[in-house]
Specification:
The complex is a heterodimer of chains A (about 425) and B (about 425). Chain A has about 425 residues and is of the alpha+beta class. Chain A has 2 domains: about 50-155 and about 310-380, 3-Layer(aba) Sandwich (D-Maltodextrin-Binding Protein, domain 2); about 160-310 and about 380-425, D-Maltodextrin-Binding Protein, domain 2 (3-Layer(aba) Sandwich), CATH 3.40.190.10. Chain A has helices at about 1-20, 60-75, 90-100, 115-120, 135-145, 175-185, 200-210, 235-250, 260-265, 280-285, 325-335, 335-345, 355, 360, 365-375, 390-400, 405-425, and strands spanning about 50-55, 80-85, 105-110, 125, 145, 150, 150-155, 160-165, 195, 215-220, 225-230, 270-275, 290-295, 310-315, 380. In chain A, the strands form 5 sheets. In chain A, strands 3, 4, 7, 14 and 15 form a 5-stranded mixed β-sheet that branches. In chain A, strands 9-12-8-13 form a 4-stranded mixed β-sheet. In chain A, helix 7 (about 200-210) crosses helix 8 (about 235-250). Helices cover about 75% and strands about 0% of the residues of chain B. Chain B has 17 helices and no strands. The radius of gyration of chain B is 31 Å and the shape is flat. The chains are: A alpha+beta (about 425), B mainly alpha (about 425). Chains A and B meet through helix 1, helix 3, helix 4, helix 16 and helix 17 of A and helix 4, helix 5, helix 8 and helix 16 of B. Chain A: One of its GO terms (biological process) is maltose transport. Chain A: GO terms for molecular function: carbohydrate transmembrane transporter activity; maltose binding.
Chain lengths: ~425, ~425
């Protein structure tokens, strides 16, 4: 016992001695990234040997970026190293690699992670320069946070209405039309349905709330006020009642999972579904020419529902040593010609005015509906507090689907969300 | 005479103390003083190389461990924390070597005082090799253990005492030590306090009911298959092991589909014959029932295999003796079979309970802890571990998650510790 005490005491002494030393106070080095993201207009700095880009690990997307960056190397002589890393893992990886100095120059992220990235200080603001006006307003709104732009918009996506032409003659233009189809075609005992969607998933249900005047957080020009939530206001209750009516009328079964929904639609048993462009390939393989798409049907107040829009963008790592050339590369990747290359190879819509008007997209029988719907949508909030919203509001939707009253359920959900936001340290 | 005089000499004049002192000042000097030249030089080399290679690293590490950095962006708190913990481990090694050299010098000096002959170099090396061999053998394993198990544990425990959450995360911000604030918050922050009790009770019920059921079923089947009158023992055993052979991950997902109230085969094809529709996934009570049934199905083969093996080893003459004494079937089971089986398998059965207490897979894969319950922020079937998972990944309170995990770890360890102690006592009492 005594020996132990002696040993521990000795350790303590030694540790005390070491704490007192510590490193010589290092002067903060001039960090190479410029805090305000100004692009040197007069002259660019010297060309780097190479730039590193993290792209999403998906075969088609890698191929598209490879084609584009090869062209960039031809034009400028700068090598571009492409590292495929799953988009959802990039933030954690950058968190480790960046400070250690092995990070990339450019990462690829959905815009709703921007708030989190800015909070952690992993990205630097960018200057879109003259190209700013070429991106769609929705996309610009998405990558704006705290008054700065944080990314070059590369992909825009939202969901729309798919319908099966062998069951429906033309796309339902209004909710009334849609309900009529649901009433006509829904025969649960035969597994036939007129209208299906993930009605307990807020991501897909949002348009029916927002079209009536609900909102998640009050937003003014990229500045979100997280204390002002609009998920239990009159518009939200209106939307909640609409969703409830689908379940009450038996149009949508309570235990619908995405797998079951997609399976039934592919078997040709469902007239209309609401889903995103990532399902195009799978659906058209199953239905062939019977597959068609349309924007979401208008609500009873004449509004087109405002769907949630996601914008994936290239972002500048805070630790990049070549911010100017990185921005030059990002401008290049998202320019008109390359955006179209990306669309053709990877099948994702570019958020550029000229691209969306380009006949290749505007007259595409399938993608045109998604392109049109993005113009009605609004970007998902990019504040970190958004992470606290999903779970409680989805639970509220599942209570509504089981027939609980709409208003108290939504009020409860908002209260839980606000408690969670507080508990997560956002208000400190 | 001289012996006596040397005994009476004390303090620093005494060789043993002098050698110790020299070793304390510079490891290896004591050995040189003892005329163990080779050993002394070896220790000197080891000491200097240790200091030269690791001094700077340890210096920064320990400083970082205490301050967690002083300049945001320049210092990365998490990296400093890890470096600090590694430094502690390395330092502990250094101190251990240091103390052993001091002890060694003292031992040699005592041997010299008592006039024992100085061992030759070769014999010294062989004796050291003989004594140190086992340590050499476990050293690589110990190293691995320290860095693969102990270091992450220390890191997690440390996090529970910092203010590391989404809004205060390196590299942009520095972390601070906040003492036991996080543990205090567990008991006075509304969203956790309300839900904690519900989740905790269900966790206990789940652990006890599901595990006990799988053990009872395993035992029952093992006894049946072990009976002399049963034919096709091998085939039966193979069939009964099957649920264990299929990866649980896959089976749980399939069960999740089977139990779907509207589209699943259980309601649609089986129960509909009796005009029953049970809301397996949307009602908390039925979801819990389904989970317990699935876990019983997944868990009994292991117990069954375990008991089958033990039953083979119960001596037949005991049963014969029981027959002679006129014991009934039940008495034979109660006084011969059960004590044998449970005695041999008790530790493993306890591990089954501990495993289910933290059985994240089944809860998460079956229904993600759902269905939702109004007025609490955990699902109806969430157990502590899956709830912590949700808290961590939704509210990004890494510090709170670490704190709750420590509490859970303590519960499990205390439970396991007492159980193992009891089984040890059980062992000494039981004589077969």
């Amino acid at each position: 016992m005594k020996k132990w005490l002696g040993t521990i005491f000795g350790m303590m002494l030694l540790i005390g001695l070491l704490v007192a030393c510590g490193p010589e106070e290092t002067k903060p080095t001039d960090s190479s990234s410029n805090e305000d993201g100004e692009k040197a207009t007069e002259e660019m700095p010297e060309k780097p040997e190479k730039l590193t880009v993290w792209v999403n690990a998906e075969e088609k997307q890698e191929e598209a970026v490879k084609q584009i960056t090869d062209k960039y190397t031809e034009e400028t002589g700068i090598d571009v190293e492409m590292v495929p890393i799953n988009m959802l893992d990039q933030v954690e990886k950058l968190n480790v690699e960046g400070p250690a100095g092995n990070g990339p120059d450019i990462i690829f992220q959905p815009h709703d992670r921007i708030g989190d990235l800015v909070l952690r200080g992993l990205v630097a603001p960018v200057n879109l320069g003259e190209t700013e006006s070429e991106y769609t307003d929705t996309a610009l709104q998405a990558v704006k946070y705290d008054g700065d732009y944080w990314g070059y918009p590369a992909v825009i996506e939202t969901y729309a209405m798919y319908y099966n032409k062998s069951l429906v003659d033309e796309a339902p233009a209004t909710m009334e039309d849609l309900m009529a189809i649901a009433k006509r075609d829904t025969k649960p005992e035969e597994d036939k349905f007129g209208f299906l969607m993930e009605a307990a998933n807020f991501y897909f249900v949002y348009p029916f709330f927002s079209g009536n005047g609900a909102y998640v957080f009050a937003n003014e020009d990229g500045n979100y006020d997280i204390s002002d939530m609009g998920l239990a206001n009159e518009g939200a209750i209106e939307g909640g009642k609409l969703v409830k009516s689908w379940f009450d009328n038996g149009y949508i079964p309570q235990d619908l999972t995405p797998d079951i929904m997609n399976g039934l639609f592919k078997e040709g048993k469902v007239s209309t579904v609401i889903n995103g462009p990532w399902m195009v390939r799978e659906y058209s393989d199953a239905l062939g020419d019977d597959l068609a798409t349309a924007p979401l049907p208008k609500l009873s107040n004449g509004e087109v529902p405002k769907s949630f829009v996601g914008v994936k963008s290239y972002m500048l790592s805070y630790y990049s040593e070549n911010p100017e050339w990185s921005q030059d590369l990002m401008t290049f990747i998202t320019n008109e010609k390359n955006a179209m290359t990306y669309y053709e190879v990877a099948g994702e819509l570019p958020p550029r005015k000229d691209s969306l008007e380009n006949p290749v997209i505007a007259e595409d029988p399938i993608y045109s509906a998604f392109a049109e719907q993005t113009t009605y949508g609004e970007p998902m909030p990019s504040v970190p507090a958004m992470q606290q919203v999903w779970d409680p509001i989805n639970n509220a939707l599942s209570f509504i689907s089981k027939g609980e009253p709409v208003e108290p359920v939504l009020k409860e959900a908002v209260k839980i969300i606000q408690n969670q936001i507080e508990a997560s340290g956002a208000t400190e | 005479m001289r012996d006596k005089q040397s005994k009476q000499r004390n303090g620093l004049r005494q060789p043993r103390n002098f050698a110790t002192l020299l070793s304390i000042i510079v490891p290896g000097l004591g050995q040189l003083y003892n005329r163990r030249i080779f050993k002394g030089i070896l220790f000197l080399i080891i000491t200097t190389s240790f200091l030269v290679t690791s001094w700077h690293y340890i210096d920064i590490g320990i400083w970082g461990l205490f301050t967690l950095g002083t300049i945001p962006r320049e210092h990365h708190s998490i990296q400093l924390l890890i470096q600090g913990l590694i430094s502690l481990i390395v330092l502990a090694f250094g101190v251990a070597i240091y103390i052993s050299t001091i002890k060694d010098a003292r031992r040699d000096a005592i041997a010299r005082e008592e006039g024992k002959p100085k061992p030759s170099l070769l014999s010294g090396i062989t004796s050291f090799y003989d004594r140190g061999f086992p340590y050499f053998m476990i050293l690589p394993g110990l190293m691995m253990l320290l860095f693969v198990v102990v270091l992450p544990l220390l890191f997690m425990v440390s996090l529970a005492f910092t203010n590391y959450n989404q809004y205060n995360a390196p590299p942009r911000k520095l972390l601070d030590w906040v003492g036991i604030d996080n543990f205090a918050a567990l008991f006075d922050v509304g969203i956790w306090q309300d839900t904690f009790l519900n989740v905790f009770t269900w966790t206990i019920v789940w652990t006890i009911v599901a595990t006990t059921l799988q053990i009872v079923l395993g035992l029952f089947l093992a006894l049946l298959v072990n009976d002399k009158r049963i034919k096709f023992k091998r085939t039966l055993r193979t069939v009964l092991i099957l649920p264990w052979a299929v990866p649980a991950f896959v089976s749980i997902l399939i069960f999740s589909a089977l139990f779907n109230p509207t589209f699943g085969a259980i309601n649609r094809d089986i129960l509909s014959q009796f005009n029953i529709m049970i809301p397996w996934l949307s009602d908390p009570f039925w979801a819990k029932t389904a989970l317990i049934m699935i876990q019983t199905w997944l868990g009994f083969p292991f117990v069954f295999a375990l008991f089958t093996g033990v039953l083979q080893s119960v001596p037949a003459d005991m049963y014969e003796a029981a027959d002679v004494d006129g014991g009934t079937r039940f008495q034979k089971l109660r006084f011969i079979t059960l004590p044998h089986v449970l005695f041999a398998t008790a530790p493993l059965l306890i591990m089954q309970y501990a495993g289910n207490f933290n059985n994240f897979n089944i809860i998460y894969l079956f229904n993600e802890g759902g269905p939702a319950v109004r007025g609490q922020n955990a699902g109806g079937t969430d157990i502590l571990i899956s709830w912590v998972y949700k808290l961590t990944f939704e509210t990004n309170n890494y510090n709170m998650a670490a704190a709750i995990t420590i509490i859970m770890g303590l519960i499990i360890s205390i439970f396991a510790f007492f159980q193992f102690r009891k089984t040890a006592a059980f062992k000494e009492e039981g004589r077969y």
